[in-house]
Amino acid sequence: MSIYHSIEQVIASYFKVEFSIVLNEVSLQQTKKEFSGDLTFVLFPYLKKAQKSPQELGTSLGSFLVDNTEEIVTFNIVKGFLNLTLSDVFYFNHFNDLFATKNYGIKEPTANAPTVLVEYSSPNTNKPLHLGHIRNNLLGHAVANILAANGKNVIRAQIINDRGIHICKSMVAWKRYGKNETPETNAIKGDQLVGSYYVKFDQVYKEEIKGLITSGYSEEEALQKAPIMLEAKSLLQLWEAGDPETHILWKQMNQWVYDGFEITYKNLGVFFDRLYYESQTYLLGKEIIEEGLSEKLFYKKEDGSVWVDLTDEGMDEKLLLRADGTSVYITQDLGTANQRFADFPSLSGIVYTVGNEQDYHFKVLFSIFKKLGYSWADSLYHLSYGMVDLPNGKMKSREGTVVDADDLIEQMRKTAQEISEEVGKLDGLSFSEKQTLYQTIGLGALKYYILKVDPKKRILFDPKESVDFNGNTGPFIQYTHARIKTLLGKETERIVSFSSNFQLELIEKFILKQLFIFPEIILQAGQIQSPALVANYVYDLVKAFNTFYQNVPVLSVKNADQKEFRMRLSDKVAEVIANACSLLGIEVPNRM
RNA sequence: ACCCUCGUAGUUCAACGGAUAGAACAAAAGUUUCCUAAACUUUAGAUACAGGUUCGAUUCCUGUCGAGGGUACCA
Q1: What's the CA gap between A474 and A532, in Å, rounded?
Q2: 3-class DSSP state for residue A151?
Q3: Is residue A97 packed enough to be buried (19+ CB in 10 Å), middle (13-18) or exposed (0-12)?
Q4: For A520 and B16, how far is CA from C1' in angstroms?
């Protein structure tokens, strides 16, 4: 149990004994560093109930805590804030725990731990991954890691949008302009190849529209009647009819894309436990519609289309099934969620990592589940995130509109290389060691820069700034870790256990506190699904370490007999940095 | 038009309704024989605006302004 929790309970019991007041929420916070003390309890909210002045209540509660807890030795009151000071023995006990605990702060799932499915990436198979996918993947992967570190069973899943008009467009363009071309013949990643046909389709489509308009068609007609579009539509019909030749090509092109994605995923360091394919799920959900209809939760319009009315919840009416009986996107989502709870009997919740342009969609989806009365309707979470912008003109993508993920990764690697060469720290390493490090540093920069920001906010991503080896950046954290690792070789002294009556200096507590709160941070981050909390924590830790090491490189403590022990905290700091970074998916090299 | 999200130093980000709003980059000045100077210390600098709620508001509510997104028988 954390120190916060146990003290909070004592405070609650104080109010009960002293004033017969039952507090359902007591919360302690860390004392700000300008004040003396370790934990702070805010008295203001309780003054009225207790009919006391801050001074009186604080003195009374403070004495009670000193008398009734092992850990608290003294207190002070500033305005309405009761600052509690923890004993050195408490620190030493935790210190010993810290050194004894493997994987400090990270939990393993227990046998009956809840299972959470985290869905992320969810690409279309007609083009390569782009910058938006990078934020999606990094977020989803980090959240999955954090949930796992909280002791949950985690299933990492993606749903691949492998069917529909978009892939048919790439197929048509390939048939027209690229027959005989493969990733091998063109020496290009499969997803990039297929993406190039999608672009080609669009170019030709636009030209055809232009041509039709000049020959007298209205714009609306032209959009419909462009030959290449008609071709794509008929290909979709062929696909739906199960035409063998179409399916062979479809499978072939999708496979190219999957092979390409795999390389990108590998570069990003993300992976999946379970793949869902839309071609296998797009018909799901119709049963649920029937169910809702028979329970009169949904209704049919004259043309046969099915709707749900959410106006009483401040939303609109929403189409669930077209007049011709085919499903829309939300129909599938209804079906796949249901399917997942069937696939995994122990599943207790789903996290959907999807951009904030779909906030409304998920609001509607979740509210439909509630209407239908599914037991798990409240355990669905939309992990929504904002767009990633780039500083204007700094980066041009291959197509000019969206930033390609592979291009960005390559640029990050290059930038890391340039800066490393400039500083010249890696000179002793072999060529291949250097190449690996450039990749690690470039990606560490990208990941940290994106994850440190609150997901719902837009990000302005500046590649140059992110690879800066100074400041609040991934490389700075990686560097500090590497630095500690090389320092460790020179350190030998360590205390294994303490007995009693030790004295610690403030500066020593400073770094210890920072280490102790790591488990709390993971716990909190797991609740609010926020890797940003972990990212900001690890930076604080790194800074605390630098300050500490500058001033007190050796932790020196004295016992009652004035016998001095000397030890180093560095290896534990390095371990916690590594643990926190692994949650974020950031590699920390031992040397750089 | 309506709905949602966001507006914090010059810039990029922090701050369960709590104390004097924290960092980093950029700018200015300095330090350094336990260590990888990719460090450390110091200085200057911000809550878009106007109300409200309360012991206390960057945080909650209302309005204004600004940015982005959404209101499809698209996905």
Answers
A1: 13
A2: coil
A3: exposed
A4: 13
Residue A447's CB is within 10 A of a number of other CB atoms, namely: 27
ipTM above 0.95, yes or no: no
Task: Say which nucleotide is closest to residue A322, CA to C1' distance.
Answer: B73
- Strand B: which positions are within 7 A of a protein CB? 3-7, 11-16, 18-20, 23-26, 34-36, 38-41, 55-56, 68-75
- List the structure tokens of A331: 């129909």
In the block, tokens 């996290």 appear at A351
A148 CA to B19 C1' in angstroms comes to: 36
C-alpha span between A59 and A156 (Å, rounded): 51
| Measured CA A60 to C1' B49 distance, in angstroms | 45
Phi/psi of residue A350, nearest 5 degrees: -130, 135
- Cα separation, A470 vs A422, whole angstroms: 14
- Classified as helix, coil or strand, A281 is helix
Q: Tokens for A382? A: 């939309």
The residue type of A541 is L
Closest of A476, A488, A422 to residue A448, by C-alpha: A476
Q: Give the nucleotide with minimal C1' distance to the Cα of A35.
A: B19
pLDDT band at A507 (very low <50, low <70, confident <90, very high): low
Tens-place pLDDT, residues A129-180: 999 999 999 999 999 999 999 999 999 999 999 998 999 999 999 999 988 8
Tell me the C-alpha distance between A236 and A535, whole Å.
45
A432 CA to B60 C1' distance (Å) = 55
Distance in Å from B38's C1' to A455's CA comes to: 28
Three-state DSSP class for A387? coil
Q: Are A80 and A59 in contact (CB under 8 A)?
A: no
Residue at minimal CA–C1' distance from B26? A465
User: Which pTM value belongs to this model?
Assistant: 0.92
Residue nearest to nucleotide B68 (CA to C1'): A458
State the CB neighbour count (10 A cutoff) for residue A522: 25
> How far apart are the C-alpha atoms of A119 and A127, rounded to whole Å?
20
